[in-house]
Design goal:
heterodimer, A: mainly alpha, two-stranded antiparallel ribbon, globular, B: mainly alpha, about 75% helix
Amino acid sequence: MLALSGILVWVILLLIFIFLGFYGRRWKKGDMSKLDEWSLGGRKFSAAIVWFLVGADLYTAYTFIAIPSSVFSIGAIYYYAVPYVAVTFGIAMWAMPKLWKVSKEKGFITASDFVKSNFSSRNLAILIAIVGIVAELPYIGLQIVGMLSVLTVMLSGIANIKLVVDLSLILSFIILAIFTYVSGLRGATLTAIFKDAIILISVALVIIVALVTIGFTKSFTGLPVKYYHILPLQVNAYWSLFLMSALALYLYPHAVTGSLSAKSPKSLRLSQSLLPLYGVGLALLALFGILVYGNHAALTFLKDTFVASSRGTYVVPALIFYSLPAPLTGFAFLGIFIGGLVPASIMAMSQSNLFTRNIVRELYPKMSASREALTAKVAMIVFLFIAVGFVFIFPLSYSVQLQLLGGIIILQTLPSLFLGLVTNKLNKYSLMAGLLVGLGLGIYWMEVANHFHAWTTTLLPISSSVGSLFIGFLALSANLIIVLVGSLVALPFRKKQ
Amino acid sequence: MSQNVTAMSKRSLYVTVAILTIIPFIALAIVPSYVRTNPEIGGLPFFYWYQLLWLFLAAALFGLAAILYNKYGGE
C-alpha cells in the first residue's frame, strides 16, 4: 500500500479537484437553464482553453492504461496511437470549424442536429444519436477500468480491497455527477486543465527517473523483436488501426462537444492544429509499457499480484509506484484517477445532449428550453451510472479493445457527418442502410476474429500475405460502398423527392 | 485584373495548406519506411523515436497551415 504521505497528497488534491468542479459554475458565468450554456460552456472558449479541453479527451485511461498495457503485453503494434494522434488533428482542423460555423448559425448542439438538417431526415438523425450514445459506453467503461487500476495499486495489500475500491469508485462518481449537474462543461474544463497539469508533470518525472535509473537499452534487453518495431506482416494492421482511429476521434460526440465550445472557427482551427504536441505525453506513456521491463521491483509486483491477462492494466501505476517517492506517487495517481473522471463527465454530457436533443425532443417537440436543459442534466447522471454498471457486469481485461470497439461503431457515422460536411447530395436511405450494414458486419467480424469467444482482438486475419486488418476499416469500406452506390442509383429520382 | 490576382493567390493558398496538411499523413502511411531498429537514440529503436518526432513535425506543419489560412483565407 502507498505510504500515508502519498495517500494524504492524493486526498488533498482530490478535494481541490472537487472544489474546481463546483467553482466552474461561476467561471465565465452564463444562464445554466439553457442547454448550450450548460453543455457547451456558452460557446466562448479561447483557442488555449479548447486546446486543453479537447486534449483532455486524449489524456484518458486510453492513454495511460489501455495503450501502455497493450504495448507491454503485445508489443510495438499498439504504438499505433502515436501516428493516430499525429494525424487526427489534420482532419479536425478543417472539418470541425466547418461544423462550428453551421452549428452556431443554426443553433446546433450535436452532430445529429446537423445531420437532420443537412439530409432532412429525422430518422437518420435519431439513428446517428443512438449510435453515438452506444459508442461512448465502452469508452466510459475504459475510463472506469483505469480508475479501478490506480486504486487497486494504491491500496494493494489492505483487507477487503475489492470492497474499498468499489466503494471509492462509486463515491467518486456520485460527486462527479453532482458537480457536472451543477457546472456542466465549465466544471469539466477547469478540472481538465488541473488534471493535465498534474499528468504532464508526472509523466515527465517518471520518464526522467526511469531513464536515469534504467534506460531504454536495459529495458529492451531480452525482449522479442515485436517489441523493437512491428513485424512486416503487421504493416496493414498498423496503418488501418491508426488511420481509422484518426478518422473516428472527431465522430465521437464528446469531441464534437469540445469543438463546438470554441468562441470562433479560427481559434478552433488553431487549437486543433497544435494538438499533436499533446500526443508527446501519450507517446512517452506508451513507452512505459517497455520501460517497466527494466524495473525489476515493478515487474515482480505485477507478476506476483495479477494474472497474465490483466497484468498490463496495472503497468503505469506500478511503474510510477516503484519509480517515485510516496508523495509524488500520490500526486501522479490522483492525475490518473481524475484522468478517468473528467473525460467520463464530458462523455456522459455529450450522450445526454444526443438523448435530449435528438430523441426526447423528437417525441416532445414542444419541450421548453429549461425543460430541455433539465432533461439533459438528469440523463447525464443516468448515463454515468449505466457505464459504472457496465464495468461491474463485464470482466474487462483487454481494455484497449473497449475503445477500439467504440471506434468500430462510431466510424459508421462517418458518411453522414464528414461527407455531409462537403455534400448534401447523398441519399438518406443509402446512409441509413450503409450505417446498419457497417454495424452488422463490424459485429459479425468481431465474432469471427475472436472465434465467437470473449472479445480480445479487433483485427481480422485476411491472408498470409496481407496479414490482419482493423475491423473498423473493413466495416467502414462496406458502409461507404453502399452509401455511394445507393446515392448514385437514387440520383435520377432526387428531384421528385 | 485585381480579381484575377485574388483568385490566383486564393488558389495558391489552398494548394499550400493542402500540401502542409497532407505531408504527415503520407509520411506516416508509408509504414515500411520506419519498421526498423537502427539508428537508435539512447537505446530507443528508430521505430519509436521517428514517430515521436512526427508529433512535433505534424504540429509545426498543421500550425503553419492554420495560421496561413486564418490570416488569408477568411473563416
